[in-house]
Amino acid sequence: MKTSPIVRILPDVHVLKFGGQSVMDRGRAAVYPLIEEFVRLKRRHRMILCAGGGTRARHAYDIALGLGLPTGVLAALGEAPPRQNARMLQMLLAKHGGVYIMPDDFDKLPLYLAMGCLPIMSGMPPYDYWEKPPMGARIPANRTDSGTYLTAEFLGAKSLTYIKDVDGLYTADPKKDRKAKLIPRISVSELIALDLGDLALERVVLENMLHARHMTSLRIVNGLKAGSVARALDGKDVGTLIYRD
Fold it and tell me: Which of 96, 145, 181, 238 has the CB geometry, 3.0–4.6 Å to 202, for a possible disulfide?
């Protein structure tokens, strides 16, 4: 059956996800320099910011698991911390056009962008109680990395950048293993085949990339290093590029 090309809703917009644990949980020292970078970038790039949950989300999952609650409840609980992080960042960016986006206002993104605003939203997809239970586990597979990816894929965004506290993807956790090596560029199929024990990205994102229509690449950068996000949005070779071959 012949089908027509899928429309890219916002093809000139960059989608960025700032980590909860890697950025927000570190407080002022990590957040304020990143805010200054966002303000500078806003002058020449249209952006949408998505928030991660961080340590508070992990704590909520841990308690819920101990109580024997199902995946859908964990998904609903996991929505609160990234929403709080998004609200905090929005208040800090309010004088620069930062505006908080609720899921029900998602279709207003073009309007806010046309007005010169900087939309900020939770990265958690609103599956809540209808989150599909993952194989052999109860923690939701679709968390803030996944929700951010799905946002970029739906919008047909220009780029997708994950802001972490490491320089990119490594062969092991660089915080625990000194022999861990940075992977500057890797295909999705190669990354899945490696089956790394530690991954700086939710694994479901890789599965989604295999079926993507628009978002066939993404980049992981270190938000604690000044200029990394700017270089990523300018198309420079920074961090780790994951692409579909």
Answer: 145
> CA 93: distance to chain centroid?
19
Q: How far is CA 26 from CA 52, 86, 93, in A?
A: 13, 15, 18
pTM over cut 0.90: yes
**Measuring CA to CA, which residue among 13, 52, 47 is closest to residue 214?**
13
Q: For residue range 64-122, what is the model confidence (pLDDT) as tens digits? A: 999 999 999 999 999 999 999 999 999 999 999 999 999 999 999 999 999 999 999 99
How is the chain split into domains, by residue range?
Answer: 13-243
Report how far residue 97's alpha carbon sits from residue 112's, in angstroms, rounded to the nearest whole number.
Answer: 9
User: Cβ–Cβ contacts within 10 Å for residue 65, how many?
Assistant: 13
Could you write out the DSSP letters of every residue in 38-56? HHHHHTT-EEEEEE--THH
**Cα 139 to chain center, whole Å?**
18
CA distance 176 to 200: 13
CB 57 within 8 A of CB 51: no
Phi, psi of 200 (to 5 degrees): -80, 15
